[in-house]
Write a structure and sequence with these properties.
The chain is mainly alpha-helical. It has 10 helices and 2 strands; from the N terminus they run αβαβαααααααα.
Length: 184
């Protein structure tokens, strides 16, 4: 069912921006551009729920809120999760609002994403810096979402260095991604 212009004016559709740009003043900019709200990446399901609750009229919300709240509570003590020292599993599962099976699927996707990007993380030349920056930017976001914060932070440092064409810093720090010690 399509809405006509008069219906939209009577019942405006809330628009929520999703952005990686979380600097001061962004909320005002989005409101000025007629957004109702904004969320920053990596997306946190509990914050999304808060925004949706404010934007969706009470009469339109699901009646069974308990089912939704159970999904975002993170892993229960009885659930068995793989122990991965560099990943904050509790934070990640709470952020996504998922249980063990969903999280394991996401871990598999993370692995494929990282394996696909690692070959591109070689010492860039000035002409290959834009592609290098794109790869480390993608890793930064994916790893932050999954709770691999140390890797995300290292990728962020490489992204900044790539954007400022600091090849020396990249050369000194790229080994973090390509030469991981056994057992870590």
């Amino acid at each position: 069912m399509w809405l006509n212009a008069s219906q939209i004016r009577r019942n405006p559709i809330p628009i929520v921006a999703l952005t990686a740009n979380a600097v001061s003043g962004m909320r005002e900019l989005f409101v000025e551009k007629d957004f109702n709200n904004f969320l920053t990446k990596p997306l946190d399901v509990s914050k999304l729920d808060e925004v949706l609750e404010r934007q969706i009229p009470k009469s339109k919300r699901e009646r069974n809120k308990d089912a939704g709240n159970a999904a975002v509570s993170g892993p229960s003590l009885g659930e068995s999760f793989p122990i991965i020292p560099i990943i904050d599993i509790a934070k990640s599962t709470a952020r996504f609002g998922i249980k063990r099976e969903g999280y394991l699927k996401l871990l598999s996707m993370l692995r494929k994403e990282v394996e696909g990007r690692l070959p591109a993380l070689t010492m860039p030349k000035p002409e290959t810096l834009p592609a290098f920056v794109n790869h480390v930017h993608a890793l930064k976001g994916t790893c932050a979402s999954m709770g691999a914060l140390e890797i995300s932070e290292k990728a962020a440092e490489l992204e900044v260095a790539g954007n400022s064409e600091d090849l020396m810093f990249i050369g000194e720090n790229l080994g973090f991604f390509v030469e991981r010690p056994q057992g870590t």
